[in-house]
Amino acid sequence: MTLDELQHILLTGSWEEKEEALTNPRAGLPDREVFALLFEHLKHTNSQIRFFALFQLIRKFHESLTTIDETLVGDIYTLIFDENIPVSDRAIWALSITGDKGLDVLLESYPSATVNDKIKITYAVGKGYFSYRSKDRMNLMLAGLTSNDPQLRFTAMCTMMSNTPVGRSWNNPWNSTEDKSIDFEEVYKIVLPVARDFSQIENNTYREFATRYINWIEGRGRE
Questions:
Q1: In this structure, which of 97, 129, 136, 156 has its CB flanked by the most CB atoms within 10 Å?
Q2: How many CB atoms lie within 10 A of CB 9?
Q3: Is it the case that residue 54 has pLDDT exceeding 50?
Q4: Nearest partner of 96 among 79, 115, 117, judged by Cα
């Protein structure tokens, strides 16, 4: 199989045909060429093609993603803002695999980002598997808790709570914090008044999540 033939299948084939083309040992294409082709597809206008490319980069090239340069990291970072939610979620996963480079671009982009982009960045920092730099992540989420924008403040509250010991996803490595020097009692003191404010407003989603977090914080140590 030539690279052009693989390109044609990846652009026009069914998911099964694409999988077959990538896994067929008779294809004989160097990994570096397939890797580069998948990265090209991250910029395609079709969201299904972008999703497939991300899916396969994570699945087949996990180790390669850990060593990519800043330009390729930037290509993945761009997709966390994708309007297609599955693409955006998969981009966060892929960015996490890049390690420090991925986290650095998130942290460096945050101060000058628009509010909507700060919401996405906060979600990515909170959800991504960057627990080895927990303080950096916590500081960004704490910044969001002081925002005047309710959606950013709400996102910061939710991501922060999912990364605390009382969070119900705590045992999931994607929502854990390995830095033992973090004083979560201080974190709870900051989150609690924010949650109480949200618990008093009309928005049902804000109120329900806030009430849940208040119960988690106030009920810690009782279970």
A1: 156
A2: 18
A3: yes
A4: 79
pTM equals: 0.87
Q: CA 147 → CA 58, 85, 144, 202, distances in Å?
A: 34, 24, 5, 19
Contacts of 198 (CB under 8 A, 6+ apart): 153, 154, 157, 206, 207, 209, 210
Question: How confident is the model at residue 168, as a pLDDT?
Answer: 60
Q: What Å distances lie between residue 139 and 30, 72, 132, 144, CA to CA?
A: 42, 26, 14, 9
Q: Residue 222: what pLDDT? A: 60
Q: What pLDDT band is residue 26 in, cutting at 50, 70 and 90?
A: low
Q: Give the separation between CA 106 and CA 112, rounded to whole angstroms.
A: 11
Q: Where are the beta strands (DSSP E) in the chain?
A: none
